[in-house]
Amino acid sequence: MISEFFVNLSTINVLGTEVPVTSLIIGVVIMIVGVIVAKIASIFFKKYFAANLEGDVAKNLNKAIYYGIIIISLLAVTTSQGIDLSGLMVAGGIFGIVIGFATQSVVSNLISGIFLMFDRPAKTGDLIEIPANKIYGRLMDITIFSTRIKLFDGSIMRVPNQTVFTSEIRNVSGTEVRRIEGVVGIAYKENIDHAISEIKKSVATLPYVLAEPEPAVWVEQLADSGVNLRVLIWFPRDDWDYVGPVLMKKVKEALDGAGIEIPFPQRTVWLQK
């Protein structure tokens, strides 16, 4: 009886397979070594490679390396013990199909997040716009499933990665300078060249407006009530607050100071007797 007890104790049934206790101990050792290797690889990655990558990309790649090594270790253990996973795989496959249909958007966001981390259309802190969704703000981070953008009202918007990846993204911070423009109308009786000259002189006095490329003004349209002029100026990308809100105010002051009329909508009615 005692000998039978020790014989039974020497093996353990795992998913229908009799596995020796010594093999299980070896498997545990392999898993412990796998976890240690995963931690070392994570530390090595942070020390030598993470500094050359964006914060979000580095963080997610570090997780992928760490858990990838652990999963490989687990597969090595199950393979070395001769455990038959076919039944579990069939059941898992059916369960996976059901879950797959229920989590299509989750998987899509996950894959889109991975692509975004490598494509890197913008980096943390950049001012971006997604025109199709009318989203305009500063990029905070790109995580596995979503992208977080801080809007100008101070709120934070969470956008699914699939939406970001499949949409057009305008990176406002991608270059050192930006251009802003506006349209103003003058009466048909006014001298166009004189109006253009006055506008150029006025906007050139604004702080942060660049001399090169110089401000530009041209005729945009011969409209119903007047001649529309388009005004374009360049400035350092981070100084919009000093230029954008006051541009058209400065244009109007220039036209008023030169005595140039800004027309309002009007109609001429002919009465036939």
Question: Which labels suit this protein?
Answer:
five-stranded antiparallel β-sheet; disordered N terminus; 273 residues; 9 helices; three-stranded antiparallel β-sheet; Helix Hairpins; 22% strand; SH3 type barrels; alpha+beta; Alpha-Beta Plaits
Q: Any chance you could write out the topology, listing elements then pairs?
A:
Layout: H1 2-9, E1 11-14, E2 17-20, H2 21-48, H3 55-80, H4 86-102, H5 104-119, E3 127-130, E4 135-142, E5 146-151, E6 156-160, H6 161-165, E7 170-171, E8 177-186, H7 192-203, E9 216-222, E10 227-236, H8 240-243, H9 247-257
Explain what this protein looks like in three dimensions.
The chain has 273 residues and is α+β, with helices and mostly antiparallel strands. The chain folds into three domains: 2-102, Orthogonal Bundle (Helix Hairpins), CATH 1.10.287; 119-173, SH3 type barrels, CATH 2.30.30.60; 176-257, Alpha-Beta Plaits (2-Layer Sandwich), CATH 3.30.70.100. 47% of the residues lie in helices and 22% in strands. It has nine helices and ten strands. The chain has helices at residues 2-9, 21-48, 55-80, 86-102, 104-119, 161-165, 192-203, 240-243, 247-257, and strands at residues 11-14, 17-20, 127-130, 135-142, 146-151, 156-160, 170-171, 177-186, 216-222, 227-236. The strands form three sheets. A five-stranded antiparallel beta sheet has the order 6-5-4-3-7. Helix 2 packs antiparallel against helix 3 and helix 7 (192-203) packs across helix 9. The longest helix has 28 residues, at 21-48. Residues 1-7 have low confidence and may be disordered.
